[in-house]
Amino acid sequence: MKFAALLTLATAFAGSCLAQNNKAAVSRPMSQADSGMVKQLFFTALREKTIDNKKQAYDLFNRVLQIDPANDASMFELANLEQLQNNNAAAESLLERAVTVNKDNEWYWLALAGLYEKNNELAKLENALTELIRLNPDRSEYYYGKANAFYLEKRYDEALKLYDKVQELSGQSDELALSRQKIYLRQGDVKKAASALDQLIASNPTQVRYYLAQAEIYSSNSQPDKAIELLQKAKKIDPDNGLVHLALADIYREQNKPEASYDELELAFANPDVDIDQKLRIVMGYVPKFPEPNAQASALQLSKVMVMAHPSDVKAYAIYGDMLLQNRKLTEAKEAYKKAIALDPKAYNIQEQLVRIQLSQGDFDDAIKDGENSLSMFPNQAWMNYMVGEAWQQKKNYIKAISYLKNATMLEAEDKSLLTQSYSALGDAYHAMGDIKNSDTAYEKALSIDPDNAYTLNNYAYYLSLRNEQLDKAAQMSKRSNELIPNTASFEDTYAWILFKQKNYTGAKLWIEKSIKNDKGASATKVEHYGDILFFTGDVNGAVENWKKAKQLGTNSPLLQRKIDEKKYSE
């Protein structure tokens, strides 16, 4: 029996033993009535403890001590009750009083040793184990426990001597050999450490864990070839052992053999017995190497294998979704996230990732459906409120959009990015509803939080120009947005239009041409603006040509036709 198991037994057996063998060695003289009352109270307390009435038992044991202050059995029972409440200091004090009264009670010392071990009081633990050895010198577990205490105190030679005693009493064991091996490693004696494991392998040639431990010694001491040789032997014994594959993968990686390392990792990931958290850490280890294509591809494939090995684990699908997202496989990422959510409907972070992708792909109906479902469980999530608000805005349901966006601003106080985006989106929504006052207020609020948010600057400036209001302010904001994110066609078009409104036609022509150059797709509105600007620079033919082009691109307004027919600008 191991020392730790003996500690557990101390509480189980002590109560019945103590009830029969209470030695109140230093107790004050008691009358026969007092003695009878103590026995009655003690056994009543034990009964209350047995039926789990801890409070009553605690009070009764304390009453015993009031009558008989040296009643060590009650001290022990009270210590057990204190431990159940995690009052370890009080329990320790009671047990120390108990061994002072009755120094020859093995169970008291055993329980006390358990507390010393838990609290890492090594000097006291050593003393308690010495007492236990005195009381029961044939019990090998006590020597083993004391040797482990010496190990923790770095008294390695003394620990080794006690391990010899353990072997004398109980014979050689795997645990004992491994304990010796740990000390040899701490002493830097690799040869002895390896020898200890050689003995274990010789006597247990099919125990893969010994090969793993031996390989770790060689690998940690710059002897990778010996480690690989041992692991290959282990691999023949147990070809599907995931830990063997992981160990080989580590060594191959250190030897700069990425393909061999990856092959071993894939085999380890296919084994469902390998801890999934360990697999997750390995996949995340690839992330700092992104955006290297090989790193991304490896992380993605390992995640896929992990899903196959752990088809019921939400973490497997979550990391698989993340890796698909990193590899820009958005549709597949959505499916992985949906499976993760099906396994755990309360996995909020995964729900947020799903809705982000839906928004980015323009799946506004799905974003609303899944976002609102998430908010039914997590109504106070600011980002989800913002995203659902954005989705409703894209659907042109501005009343609902405003409701969710306002929720986002009320729920978040620290995230400046979210607050800025929420107020900016509110500005867009209010403008679409014709509520100019609230629109301007929202934009101003967004800019008070982040004065250099390029998108807010551009949108606010553009809407001011449409109203032909505060054009100097609009020009200033638009110019700044182009400084922050240069070569953005929509920003350049806004600035060109504001300059046009200010009758700065030369500047407007320069910026609209920049916008057209940077525009990946021809915009009818932008081409029409270009025609308007050319007209005021004196290039009537160029103006008409661009107005016609705008019509070909899909603008069919009577105003545009009038410009073409009359060959002049009209408002």
Q: Determine the structural class based on helices, strands and strand pairing.
A: mainly alpha
How would you sum up the major sheet? none
Give the % helix.
over 70%
Rg over CA atoms, rounded to whole Å, is 39 Å
How many β strands by DSSP?
0
How far apart are the first and last residues' alpha carbons, in Å? 97 Å
Q: Overall 3D geometry? A: elongated
Topology:
Layout: H1 3-20, H2 32-50, H3 54-67, H4 72-84, H5 88-101, H6 106-118, H7 122-135, H8 140-152, H9 156-170, H10 174-186, H11 190-203, H12 208-220, H13 224-237, H14 242-254, H15 258-269, H16 276-286, H17 293-309, H18 314-326, H19 330-343, H20 348-360, H21 364-377, H22 382-394, H23 398-411, H24 416-432, H25 436-449, H26 454-466, H27 471-484, H28 489-501, H29 505-518, H30 524-536, H31 540-552, H32 558-566
Helix pairs in contact: 1-4, 1-6, 2-3, 3-4, 4-5, 5-6, 6-7, 7-8, 8-9, 9-10, 10-11, 11-12, 12-13, 12-14, 13-14, 14-15, 15-17, 16-17, 17-18, 18-19, 19-20, 20-21, 20-22, 21-22, 22-23, 22-24, 23-24, 24-25, 24-26, 26-27, 26-28, 27-28, 28-29, 29-30, 30-31, 31-32
Could you please describe the fold and organization of this structure?
- The protein is mainly α and 571 residues long.
- The chain contains 32 helices and no strands.
- The chain has helices at 3-20, 32-50, 54-67, 72-84, 88-101, 106-118, 122-135, 140-152, 156-170, 174-186, 190-203, 208-220, 224-237, 242-254, 258-269, 276-286, 293-309, 314-326, 330-343, 348-360, 364-377, 382-394, 398-411, 416-432, 436-449, 454-466, 471-484, 489-501, 505-518, 524-536, 540-552, 558-566.
- Helix 22 (382-394) packs parallel to helix 24.
